Amino acid sequence: MTPFIQACIKANEEISSALQNGFDTSWFEKTEVGAGGDISSKLDLFAEEIFVKHLSAFGKIESEESGIIGEGEEQIIIDPIDGSANALSLFPFYGTSVAKVNAEGILDAAVVCNLANKDIFFKSSTCKVQQGKLFSNTFHDPHSSEKAEIGLFEKAYANPELVAALDKEKLKFRSPGAIALSLAYAHTVNYVLFMGEFRIYDFAAGLALCEGLEVIVEADYVIVSKEKSIAMQIESLINKL
Questions:
Q1: CB-based burial of residue 141 (10 Å sphere; 0-12 exposed, 13-18 middle, 19+ buried)?
Q2: Mind telling me which SUPFAM superfamilies this protein's record contains (predicted)?
Q3: Taking a C-beta distance cutoff of 8 angstroms, is the pair 13, 20 a contact?
Q4: Strand-pair category, 151-154 with 191-195
Q5: What CATH architecture applies to the domain 151-240?
Q6: pLDDT digit string (tens) for 120-152?
Q7: pLDDT at 40
Q8: Distance between CA 144 and CA 101 in Å, rounded?
Q9: Where exactly does CATH 3.30.540.10 map onto the chain?
Q10: CA gap 41, 97 in Å, rounded
Q11: Which residues of the chain have pLDDT under 50?
Q12: In the chain, fewer beta carbons within 10 Å around the N or the C end?
């Protein structure tokens, strides 16, 4: 495990420990529009501060909240709280997303953590995708369900025609509201689908964790599945709209 991955895990463990006894009331306060276009909460900024503390020695940080922080040849792309609306609604599907791009422009590390259940996923240039738990030193290949019954459709609420088409094809789904986390679980579910504006903070780490899966990335949609036939079926539905 690389020092960068270790630092990411330590940052997530610090955030998780802070959340252990419930959310501080100040974290629910909204501040201003962040670099990613959404209004940042004080929870977002709290998590960002912890990541900056642990990761700034590795390069320049580009955060969804504050934009560019620090300097360096390597770029670290973070979403301090992925699914912050879920977190602030106390809905247990929220986490963090970190990706590192080296000086040659190659993404060489990715870490996504589900703070709600402490699942953590990572990969680097020296190791394939691994899954484990915060506060544990045991890691393994990602869990996979060969008989998964649902997919994950992020931004489903904004795409009613595709929702109807998926329903007609009996392609069941849930829409949990945290794209990096959904991509991290792509090895488990039937498929992951996103339709909407593509932001680097949402996808840099998550897509890197989809190693070995069928991945289709276009300007306005992303499809990931264990089965090429499922990915192609969904793309066909999109093209018919």
A1: exposed
A2: Carbohydrate phosphatase (SSF56655)
A3: no
A4: parallel
A5: 3-Layer(aba) Sandwich (3.40)
A6: 999 998 899 999 999 999 999 998 888 899 999
A7: 79
A8: 28
A9: 3-140
A10: 17
A11: none
A12: C
